[in-house]
Each structure stands twice: as C-alpha cells, then as structure tokens.
Predict the 3D structure of the following.
Amino acid sequence: MFGTLPVYRKLVTVTLMLGLLLIAAILLGLTSGSSGDSAAAWQHLLGRGASDATLETIVWQLRWPRVVLAATVGAALSLGGMVFQALLRNPLAEPYILGVSGGSAVGAILGILAGYSLFPGLALSSFAGSLAVLLLVLLLGNRREGGGDALLLGGVMVNAFCGAIIMFLISVSKTVQVQKIIFWLMGDLSAAGTASLPLLLGVLPCFLLIFLLAQPLNLLLTGRESASAMGVNVPAVTLTLLVTASLMVSLTVCHSGLIGFVGLTIPHVLRLILGPDHRVLVPACILAGASYLILCDLLARSLPSQGEMAVGIVTALVGAPLFVVLLWRERR
C-alpha cells in the first residue's frame, strides 16, 4: 500500500491517517471509563445537554491530563524503541528489554527515597540511572563473537540486576513508600496532572531532534563505514541519539513507572508496514505510540478489577507474546 509512494507523499499520508487515529483515541479516552457515563461525556464534548459540574471535573480534570500523559509516554517509548533498534541494528532492542527502563527506575526510586521533587530532581536521577545502564549494556554487547544475542543477553542480565536493586530498595523503605513504589513500578498513569507539564516540555525537543536526524539514521543502516563516507559524523550522531532516547525514557519512567514492550511492539509493526525510512517512521512512531498507550490505558481502567489495573499489565500482556514470536523468528 505504501511501498510505491514517494517519501514525502508517504509522510503526509501516514501522518494524516495516524493523526486521525490519535484524535479518535483521545476522544475515546475522554468519553469512556469505569464510571459508565460515555453518552453524557459525548454530549458534554459536543456542547449539548445541561451543564454538569461533576462530569466536567471527570472529563477535564481527571481524564484529560491522563490522556495527555498516556499519549506523551506512549510516543516517547515508541520513538525510543525505534532509535535503539536502528542504532543497535536489532529489531528486538527496546528500552525495557535492554534494561534502560530498569536503570531509570533505580534512579527514580533513589530520588523518591531521597525526597527529591518530581522535576528536576527525580528526572535527573532517573536520567543518570538510564545512562549508566545503557553504557553498561553497550560495553557488554560490544564483542564480535556475541553480536545481537550478546547485546540482548547483556540487557536481560542488567535488567535482572536492576530488579534485584529495586527489591532491595523496597525492602529497606518505609511502609508508606513501599505501596507507592510497588504500584508505580507496574506502570501507573493515575498520578497525571499539572506536574506532567515538564514532561511535555522535555520530550518535545527530543522528538524534533530525532526527526532532524532521521536521514543520518537511514544512512547508518548501511553500515558505519558507508555512512561516514557519505558525510555522517557517526560518533556524534550515535551519541546524540542514544542520549536523547535515554532522556525520553527517563522522563517517562519518573512519571509513569515501568511500562514495557511499547518500544518493541509499535516500531516493529510500523517498520513491517511502512518500510525502514526513518523520515516516515519517526512521526509514525510518535502518533501510533501515543494512540496505542491511550487505548491500553483505557482498557486498563475499564476492565473489572479490585481497584484500578496498571497500564503496564496490559502492555505486557500484548507485548510479551509478540516478543517471544519475534525472538523465535530471529533465532530461525
């Protein structure tokens, strides 16, 4: 469907289609939920019906910040997964599996225990954790005999180590902090509010920078030597993209906790449909990732359960089986 289109026409077409999908997901996120007032919420959005203060509070003070946070987190995780898959030339690479999210979580929990505010203290400690883990994984995977498997195994090992550190920190934490940290680790968007504004301010420049580097990223797919021969400053571009992707992940983790497999599912599916051109994949990952997490969060808060289900549970139920299928295909 998209393979024969010129790149800029494909970009416009894909952006319009996924933009409409995002608008539909936002409307569903605003009008649907556990309260069962969908019809009244639609009437409110259309400006019909009597004024209802309770409904207005639900739609604009509870659901709207949550939808915005879900969209931002989904877009950042999806785009981060695309960057890691391209730079590491491995379709199974993503922040959660490589342990970058786990490192961010360790840094964020240390920030919580130290009493840091959400922004900038907690964000900076989360960013430091993600960079430390990313550097360690790259060092472990930087061997000829290991290849992509060495990188994945190194990420799994580091992720397990981060999990052990997290359990240790929980075991020595105060009782009030333990419950908050555990629910946050499952991937929680219920704390969305005005505190999410710094997250938006932080990730938007990252989106723009990655889009501007889409063409050098395309050239890197041909190999580092070929990209360098075509004028790409390979070390600078690689370092910039890795740091930018880690910053996006750390900002999302300190707001939403660990939400896995978004960075694996969305970029891989889009690459199969749209092809490998990152000039198209970057906006596609942003829009599709935002829509995906809004819908996953809607499903999480609509399913019957004792209390609210964490969105990380839903993304894991979808992404983990897909990861097994992709890993099986890679091994073949």
Notes: The CA atoms of residues 188 and 256 lie 5 Å apart.
